[in-house]
Design goal:
The protein has four helices and no strands. By secondary structure, the chain is mostly helical. Helix 1 packs antiparallel against helix 3 and helix 1 packs parallel to helix 4. The chain is elongated and about 65 Å long.
């Protein structure tokens, strides 16, 4: 009597083959039946390993791109907010103070929503990268590190100490 499907791992079969995803909870360099995050991302050959590692590098470098876009958005909105008239500006006195104040409040709300969206994307992205790392496969781990390196070289215009955590 086969109890394999009752052990909780029955859903890890590839639909087109009999091979199963190999899940390791210890560090390994072995890529036999390695699945990266999804069972559909199954490593079958050296070529699929190579293309997957390139994909991991690109994905990880993309995280730095998202962080840079977030920093640029914050800088541009800070500049925009500084140009808006404040309570003591002469421009406010020329128009209705209520109307001018509402424009500033609306701009602040839009800015906060956009910053929250950038933050949510960064959190999702960082946890996705953490899942890549948690394959415990040395090749994937190295690809994550190389991607972080490439991403920081390409997009990192601030301190490297800010992104050493998942979130």
């Amino acid at each position: 009597m086969d109890h394999h499907d009752h052990m909780g791992h029955g859903g890890m079969d590839m639909p087109s083959s009999g091979s199963k995803c190999n899940m390791n909870m210890l560090f390994t360099w072995d890529t036999t039946d390695l699945c990266i995050i999804f069972p559909q991302w199954h490593i079958y050959s050296t070529f699929s390993l190579f293309t997957s590692l390139i994909g991991v590098i690109v994905l990880t470098a993309g995280y730095e791109f998202v962080r840079e876009m977030s920093r640029r958005y914050e800088a541009s909105t800070a500049e925009y907010m500084n140009k808006l008239p404040s309570d003591d500006d002469d421009l406010r006195e020329q128009s209705s103070s209520l109307w001018a104040g509402r424009n500033v409040a609306d701009a602040e709300k839009r800015q906060k929503v956009a910053k929250a969206a950038f933050y949510a994307v960064q959190v999702f992205y960082s946890f996705f990268i953490m899942l890549l790392f948690m394959t415990y496969n040395g090749w994937v781990m190295l690809a994550v590190a190389v991607g972080a390196f490439v991403g920081y070289l390409g997009f990192g215009n601030s301190s490297a100490t800010k992104s050493v955590a998942c979130h």
